[in-house]
Specification:
By secondary structure, the protein is of the alpha/beta class. It has a single domain, classed as P-loop containing nucleotide triphosphate hydrolases (Rossmann fold), CATH 3.40.50.300. Helix content is 42%, strand content 22%. The protein has a five-stranded parallel sheet with strand order 2-7-1-8-9, with helices on both faces. Strands 4-3-6-5 form a four-stranded mixed sheet. A hairpin with a 2-residue loop joins β5 and β6. α1 packs across α7 and α5 runs antiparallel to α6. The radius of gyration is 16 Å and the shape is globular. It starts with 8 loop residues before the first strand and ends with a helix.
Amino acid sequence: MNNLSSKPLMLVLSSPSGAGKTTLSKKIQQSDSSFKISVSHTTRKARPNEVDGVDYHFVSKDKFNKLLDEGAFYEYSKIFDNFYGTSKSSVNTIIKNNCNVLFDIDWKGAQQLTNYKELNLLKIFILPPSKKELKKRLVARNQDGEESIKNRLLAYSQDIKHSKEYDYVIVNDNVDNCFNEIKQIINQKLKV
């Protein structure tokens, strides 16, 4: 996957919350040094295992709104009372370092990215095997309260409606199989 085309690849991974996109994003970056994850800004509080500047840029709502007013984001959205956004400067830094960009974003963000025709986008939507399995994963990861899990499950039906907007849809019933499928798709895209 290390062969960069003339335009860096912008790989977008989206999924319902808990379907595995963050795990898959990290696996892609660890397996291929030409991919760098675009670190989003967010107004939500950091989880115990998260590091500012690595997992997200954790900012106040005021700071986020200031960046928004300045046109600093390629995409942004409000998810469960928190804002998330991909800054143009962080993406441009990755590109200047001659790397491909990996976006771990929702469907709303992916829709906004498609407005930038200069971006060489490859959009992959990750689905869990079932809603029941998704609930099991959300409970098992032990990062969200009961209300948050309920909201994420309610959003699931809306999320999957947008899977048809993507170049590929993959069911993550096994993280290694799903990862290998994504690698094959990337290799095909980079050969073109």
